[in-house]
Write a structure and sequence with these properties.
With 494 residues, the chain is an alpha/beta fold. The protein has helices at 50-67, 72-88, 90-101, 105-130, 171-182, 196-208, 223-231, 246-253, 277-289, 306-320, 340-355, 403-412, 426-435, 469-475, and strands at 16-18, 21-23, 30-35, 40-46, 134-137, 148-156, 159-163, 186-189, 216-218, 238-242, 259-262, 268-271, 301-305, 359-360, 366-367, 370-371, 374-377, 394-400, 415-416, 418-422, 440-443, 456-457, 459-460, 463-464, 466-467, 477-485. Helices cover 38% and strands 22% of the residues. Helix 1 (50-67) runs parallel beside helix 7 and helix 3 (90-101) crosses helix 4 (105-130).
Length: 494
């Protein structure tokens, strides 16, 4: 941990970062981070003021001007350095993820390594995308002579505000930071409270790589005090947000700037009669219960044809029974959900389903923030769990009598992030995929955001814009055109 000593003050409070320096807030206040497993205070971070946020943004604005003129190969070189340092420091960063968000230890290490890979890939992809321009000639449009040449290239937007969620505070931060930097933008990161310390460690890795002062900043504090001030700041030129309903509020308040938002989902899994039920069951358990279901791409509802429902439910029950439940330090499959309020919300959905006579495949059990995995069969459309996103280890099964019924339920949701279909008939799979109103449909696999260079987007309340490394680079740039006007030739050729 010695490499991270300078990011903590004498009282053990983590500092915020701007203009190349780790600083204490003038507010003299801090925000406490509760360990989800112990439910006791574990870390503290600075509670930045609006005045400090203003300095951060204005510094980022100045730093971006010179960064935009930095050669593309140099930007890529620094990103590769940051990626290497990030991987070298995977153990202490992963330890923060275990303590802050109760991520199983092995998954925490995987997140950090994956983040390093993302940064490196982004450096290479950025060189490819941004190293090419385009030439248009005027006579390709009716009525024009060949007297104009239009040269187009991609230029940066300016200052990008990145707001990642608690469940992947490192990976979903670098998925915003790396494309912004390679494209010539500066970055202001506002990490989630749960996950802020892991994000600060990650930012320090970028600092150690040697990026120019002011280019990367990280502010911590209460969203109620600095959230709106940040998102409505006139010098912010782009917002990339991943999270929940807050994104809708941001989109209404932000100025006329590009927005990239992923706001959650109710990812439906449709299982047909001809599906490989062992494959489907394995993916339902993996998709529904990995990281205790706290993923936007988790399977949130299984829509199963009645004729195979009994068999499938038994197969899923058998796999759920093998899941280990306990502390993230012990690499358990099911670990505590991130906050007590989250656990209370999940319990509310479970009690509603119980009152309305859903079939409990396991006994409901909860200790503090730890909720044992629960499969709910015979869920009906009047139950909240049929529509609301639990973000926990609770999975509803809705029995359907036709493919059309399954598609209808999927499309009736306000969400449209991802979905999946299990069938051996590729023609049916493609037709169902076309009919599902979701950004991505997985065939014979659980929903997933990765690989990180794949397009990732949602429809309806699941967000706007498209993510994935290539799409993010393109979104964080704008087209600049230079038109060369030639004189009308006074001679004839030939």
């Amino acid at each position: 941990m010695a490499v991270f000593e300078e990011i903590v003050d004498e009282n053990g409070v983590y500092k915020f970062f701007y203009d190349g320096v780790w600083r204490k807030s003038s507010s003299g206040k801090s925000v406490t981070i509760i360990n989800p497993t112990t439910r006791k205070p574990h870390f503290r971070v600075q509670a930045c003021t609006q005045e400090e946020v203003n300095k951060v943004v204005e510094t980022a604005k100045l730093a971006q001007k010179s960064w935009a003129k930095t050669p593309l190969w140099k930007r890529a070189e620094l990103l590769h350095k940051a990626a290497a340092i990030l991987k070298e420091q995977k153990a202490p960063i992963a330890e923060c993820l275990v303590k802050e968000i109760a991520k199983p230890a092995k998954d925490a290490v995987t997140e950090v390594v994956r983040s390093g890979d993302l940064v490196s890939y982004c450096a290479e992809e950025g060189v490819r995308i941004l190293g090419e321009g385009k030439l248009l000639v005027s006579d390709s449009f009716p009525g024009n002579e060949r007297t104009k040449y239009c040269l187009t290239s991609k230029i940066p937007l300016g200052v990008v505000l990145a707001i990642p969620p608690f469940n992947y505070p490192v990976n979903l931060a670098v998925s915003k930071i790396a494309p912004a930097l390679i494209a010539g933008n500066s970055i202001v990161l506002k990490p989630p409270t749960q996950g802020a310390v892991a994000a600060l460690h990650m930012v320090h890795c970028f600092h150690l790589a040697g990026f120019p002062k002011g280019l990367i900043s990280c502010v911590t504090g209460k969203g109620s005090e600095i959230g709106d001030f940040l998102t409505m700041h006139p010098s912010i030129n782009c917002i990339s947000f991943t999270g929940g309903d807050t994104g809708i509020s941001i989109s209404k308040k932000a100025g006329m700037i590009p927005l990239q938002m992923e706001l959650g989902g109710k990812d439906a899994c449709i299982i047909l009669e001809d599906a490989d039920l062992d494959l489907a069951a394995a993916n339902i358990v993996k998709g529904g219960f990995s990281y205790s279901g706290q993923r936007c791409t988790a399977v949130k509802v299984a829509l199963v044809m009645e004729s195979v429902a009994d068999t499938l439910v038994e197969k899923v029950k058998a796999k759920v029974a093998k899941l280990t439940v306990g502390a993230p330090e012990d690499d358990c499959d099911i670990t505590p959900v991130v906050t007590e309020s989250s656990a209370n919300f999940i319990e509310g959905l479970v009690m509603d389903a119980k009152q309305k006579a859903a079939t409990f495949c396991q006994e409901y059990k909860r200790e503090g923030n730890l909720i044992w995995p629960l499969l709910l069969d015979n869920v009906l459309p009047d139950m909240r769990i049929a529509w609301e996103e639990p973000f926990g280890p609770v999975l509803p099964v809705i029995r359907i009598n036709s493919v059309e019924e399954g598609i209808h339920h999927c499309n009736a949701s306000n969400f449209g992030l991802q979905g999946c279909v299990f069938t051996r008939d590729i023609n049916k799979a493609i037709l169902i995929s076309d009919a599902m109103e979701t950004g991505t449909v997985q065939i014979n696999s659980a929903p997933s955001r990765g690989p990180d260079h794949f397009p990732f987007q949602g429809l309806k309340d699941s967000g706007i814009g498209s993510q994935g490394i290539t799409n993010s680079i393109n979104m964080m740039t704008k087209i600049k055109s230079t038109v060369i006007n030639l004189p009308t030739p006074s001679y004839t050729v030939g």
